[in-house]
Amino acid sequence: MTEPDYHVAVIGAGVVGAAVARELSRHDVRCVLLESGDDVGTGTSKANTAVRHTGFDAKPGSLESSLLARGYPLMTDFAAQTGVPIETTGALLVAWDEDQLAALDGIAANARANGYTAIRPVRVSELYQSEPHLGPGAHGALLIPDEGIMCPFTTPLALATDAVVNGVELRLDSAVTDIHLGEPHTLMTASGTVTADWVVNAAGLYSDEIDRKFGHESFTVTPRRGQLIVFDKLARSLLTHVLLPVPTSRTKGVLVAPTVFGNVLLGPTAEDLGDKTATETTGDGLASLLDKGRPILPELLSEEVTATYSGLRAATEHSDYQITCHPDQNYVCAGGIRSTGLSASLGVAAHVLDLLTDAGLKLREKQTVTPVRMPMLGEAFMRPYQDEEAIASNPAYGEIVCHCERVTRAELIAAAASAVPARTMDGVRRRTRAMLGRCQGFYCSANVTSIFASASGQSPASPLRTEEGGNARRER
Description:
This protein has about 475 residues and is an alpha+beta fold. It is built from 13 helices and 22 strands. Helix 10 (about 410-415) packs across helix 12.
């Protein structure tokens, strides 16, 4: 039996894999986090609605339901500790006809069966008082006061940074190409061979392919594309809550929501595809969103569009998360985690740790861990350019480079020097919001690129590389 390089290898540095690695970093284990991309959180985690779910509409008794409930307070604490922007806006689930109105009682009962009792009905008069720009014809609604919005960029970055600062090794550009099962397991990756006693599969869209390398065929991922439209910040005054549709058995439907960046979001579509890389937007998809958004918030369609983007969810033939442990193989699979994964990530991580310990992984908690604090990207919070103390200690925090998003020189420099530094301009966008505003970098991209290149030691041309199939308008 060969001594392994690591006790645990986590495959996939999306929000779930990063959360699992962060949980393991609290213990005396050697852990590696393997990511196929050139940054963390570049797959499903970055391109979603960024709604914070309570799990009120999950299936009672499901794993998804329990892990959303478990993860909600964990994420509240984590966000407060690390600076992940979260806003508890509340959500209104709006009924637009008599059939949908009749369905509200069942949705409320479902929520209470999940242990969520704060849900309550809202009469039409109260609904229009709280959301005066709502389109005409609503029949009533349910208020879910604890739903909200969160940052899809900072969350996986904060989890991965916390993990790395506390001892996890992060390997980017390390797609797992093959696995030889044994004691230990041998993982062939694009950056070299890794051996580990235990493997956690958090590979998102590719979790079924990794699962098959362990001999299992319990689920198949069918990528479900969600296209979304981001409207200008001037539209933000049109709504207060997340506006939800009555869900179907297949999808949560098209919603309208504020974002932590101060914009308004419309989407997503739900298109089952055969291509796990098809993240392009389409004319038909965006047109359908506008058609569905018009009756919900008519004035929104008169506002300017800042960006459009598309993301893929890891849909399977099952209605629940596919999280299983195989103690005889020292292997845990965390697959089939779809649109609620951002909200449930810390609950999933705690559950995976329980499975690992029950299966025999010996874990001893560290006496101390190093806290991390992320740059604040949330518009409702104090941003660096507003922080007088930060500016006094470093005047570069007072030098705005990207004026649409109020991003400073100091933030661009910090993005190149963090524990998980940006390596491309896409990475800079996710860490700072630079070039994600109204002009999409038209005025500031040369200056942003030059500052980041100097800070990172790259040539001025090098940081302009974007992810395959990606561009600034799809990042947001």
